């Protein structure tokens, strides 16, 4: 369950662009993201110090960060699958599992904030105070956030880990669609072609799951809704960030606090609290240990995602996520000892290939836009 990637995985994360204020040197993307994560507003000499590090040291750092992201993300998916749909656990309370993970994340944020206050040299974390007015401002995003993490978990509950990536593969397509409908932003032909490949891979995957008798239409529907919520989460995050002073960690804290409050009536209405009371392993330390570990992974995925973007770039992060999804699919097939057809594998390659192609095209277009001078700059240069 991609969470912060609020969002995000979420999960989608805000992408930082180079700034060019007059009279100041442009900031690196990694530094801007670090400022957003830590809630700071001014750059220091960290970015310059990063460039001075030896090549081998920087390469080792990048390798370790990418490995940490892969291990955290893949482990979280397999752990959530165990909590949501394990035959040995037999726990049919997906909303409670999601609620508990939000609770753990909120408590971790508050604990780190308190630790940073009393030990400023040991922990670098923004100060968190629960302000009802800010909580109300974040509430629209929190509703979308709840939909995102809930539909993610419900999709994982009803489909296999191997199909999970394909079931949630339409996020890019919804990004393009919502950008046009809400922001009136058009998309290039090559980017639309990449989206077409993703859609084709999705439908082929659904067809092959049906042919093998393992298709869950409910799980597929939840995957589509999760993809939609991930796209909406990215849009609403940009609107709400000013209310939390641009700090991703403050937004994470308010999102999870709001989610805990909003989940309570759902637990009562859906009867999950009653089902939990009748759960035979309710007093098991193993059960609560796995639940808490799931919450820790949910918190950690937001941190390692930001860390990977900081040490690489948003484009490299997307490529790494695509490669991770491929490795996750292969591991799932091997772990559950499944046999898949050639067309089933083709559907996965189409989804992954389309996602990679879209990331590359958008990165190339952004680079081209940055390199081209604006009409105003052209006019000034001609005047000179």
Describe the protein's architecture and organization.
The model is unreliable at 1-47 (pLDDT under 50). The protein has one domain (29-383). It starts with 28 loop residues before the first helix and ends with a helix. The chain has 15 helices and no strands. It is an all-alpha fold and 384 residues long. It has helices at 29-38, 46-52, 55-85, 94-118, 132-158, 161-167, 171-183, 189-211, 217-240, 248-269, 272-277, 285-311, 314-335, 342-371, 375-383.
Query: N-to-C terminal Cα separation, in Å?
Result: 55 Å
What is the mean pLDDT? Answer: 83
Sheet of most strands: none
How many H/I helices?
A: 15
Structure described in brief:
Keywords: Membrane, Transmembrane, Transmembrane helix. This protein has 384 residues and is mainly α.
Entry keywords:
74% helix, 384 residues, disordered N terminus, mainly alpha
């Amino acid at each position: 369950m991609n969470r912060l990637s609020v969002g995000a995985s979420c999960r989608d994360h805000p992408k930082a662009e180079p700034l060019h204020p007059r009279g100041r040197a442009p900031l690196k993307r990694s530094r801007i993201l670090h400022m957003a994560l830590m809630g700071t507003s001014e750059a220091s000499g960290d970015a310059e110090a990063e460039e001075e590090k030896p090549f081998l040291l920087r390469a080792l750092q990048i390798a370790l960060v990418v490995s940490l992201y892969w291990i955290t993300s893949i482990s979280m998916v397999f752990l959530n699958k165990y909590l949501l749909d394990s035959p040995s656990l037999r726990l049919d309370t997906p909303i409670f599992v999601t609620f508990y993970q939000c609770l753990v994340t909120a408590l971790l944020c508050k604990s780190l904030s308190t630790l940073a206050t009393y030990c400023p040299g040991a922990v670098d974390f923004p100060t968190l105070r629960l302000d009802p007015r800010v909580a109300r401002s974040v509430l629209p995003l929190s509703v979308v956030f709840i939909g995102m993490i809930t539909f993610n978990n419900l999709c994982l509950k009803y489909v296999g880990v191997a199909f999970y990536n394909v079931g949630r593969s339409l996020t890019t397509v919804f990004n393009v669609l919502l950008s046009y409908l809400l922001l009136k932003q058009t998309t290039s032909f090559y980017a639309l072609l990449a989206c077409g490949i993703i859609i084709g891979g999705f439908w082929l995957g659904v067809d092959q799951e049906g042919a093998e008798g393992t298709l869950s239409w409910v799980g597929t529907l939840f995957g589509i809704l999760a993809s939609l919520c991930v796209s909406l989460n990215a849009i609403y995050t940009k609107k709400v960030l000013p209310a939390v002073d641009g700090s991703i960690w403050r937004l994470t804290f308010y999102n999870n606090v709001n989610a805990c409050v909003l989940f309570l009536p759902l637990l009562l209405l859906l009867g999950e609290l009653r089902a939990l009371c009748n759960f035979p392993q309710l007093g098991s330390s193993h059960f609560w240990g796995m639940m808490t570990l799931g919450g820790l992974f949910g918190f950690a995925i937001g941190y390692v995602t930001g860390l990977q973007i900081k040490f690489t770039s948003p484009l490299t992060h997307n490529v790494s996520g695509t490669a991770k999804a491929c490795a996750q699919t292969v591991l799932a097939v091997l772990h559950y000892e499944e046999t898949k057809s050639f067309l089933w594998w083709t559907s996965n390659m189409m989804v992954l290939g389309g996602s990679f192609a879209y990331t590359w095209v958008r990165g190339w277009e952004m680079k081209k836009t940055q390199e081209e001078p604006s009409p105003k700059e052209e006019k000034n240069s001609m005047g000179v």
